Amino acid sequence: MNMLRMVDPLENVTVTDIDDGFMAEVLKPYFNHSRYLKHAWFMQSDSSDPQGLIMNGEFSIPESCYIDDTGHFNAVEFNICFNQICYVHLAHCIKNALIPELSDDYDMETFFEKQLPNVLIAKLTSSYQSQLNAKHFYGTYGINSIKKTSTCTFIKTYCRFHDDANGRSKGEVTLAVMAP
Q1: Which CATH architecture has domain 13-178?
Q2: Which are the contacts of 173, defined by CB distance < 8 A and separation ≥ 6?
Q3: In which residue ranges of the chain is pLDDT below 70?
Q4: Residue 157 and residue 111: Cα distance in Å, rounded?
Q5: DSSP state for residue 23 in the 8-state scheme
Q6: With 0-12 CB in 10 A as exposed, 13-18 as middle and 19+ as buried, what is 141?
C-alpha cells in the first residue's frame, strides 16, 4: 500500500495552520514534557474524499518521557507521535465537520470528553527504514479508508516520519472510534 499521497498540482488544496491554542487544548492530556508535536498544518483537497484530509506536523523529542536517551526515534515514540498528530487531525476534522461518519456522534465538547476512552488503536504496524533524529523531525498523517458500524467508526490511517537527513519511519494504524 502506498504510504504517500501525491498531490496533483492542478488539484485545489487548502493549507491551514493549526492554532497553537487549539493544539494545546487537544494535547492537554499529555504531560508538558511529552508534548512532542510542536506545530501542525492541515491540507485539504477540494474533493469530499477523506483521503484528501492530511495533517503535517513538526516534532521534537528533546528528552524521552520514559527512558534514557537512545539517540534515535523508536517504536514507543512512534506511537506517542502518531497519537498526537492523530488527535489533532481528528479534532480539526470534527470541529469543521469534515468526516461525516463522525459528525453525527461528535462535536468538540464530546470529542474532548471522550478523546482518551473512545479513540482506540485496534492495530498498529510500524517500520524504520533508517535512524531518525528524534530532536527534530516531521510527520504526515492521513486516512486510507473509513467504515462506520452502529457502535464504532473504523479509520484505517497511515503515518510517516522523516528528519532533515535520511531518517525515515512509517506505519499503518487502524483506529476504532467508539460511538459516545
Answers
A1: Roll (3.10)
A2: 82, 86, 121, 123, 124, 125, 156, 157, 158, 159
A3: 1-11, 65-72
A4: 19
A5: H
A6: buried
Across 82-151, the runs of DSSP E, i.e. the strands, are 119-130, 137-148
Task: Tell me what pLDDT residue 72 has.
Answer: 65
3-state secondary structure 30-71: CCHHHCCEEEEEEEEECCCCHHHEEEEEEECCCCCCCCCCCC
Alpha carbon distance 74, 134 (integer Å)? 9
pLDDT for the residue 1: 32
**pLDDT tens digits for 76-123?**
999 999 999 999 999 999 999 999 999 999 999 999 999 999 999 999
C-alpha cell at 104: 453525527
Which three three-digit cell numbers place residue 68? Answer: 534514557
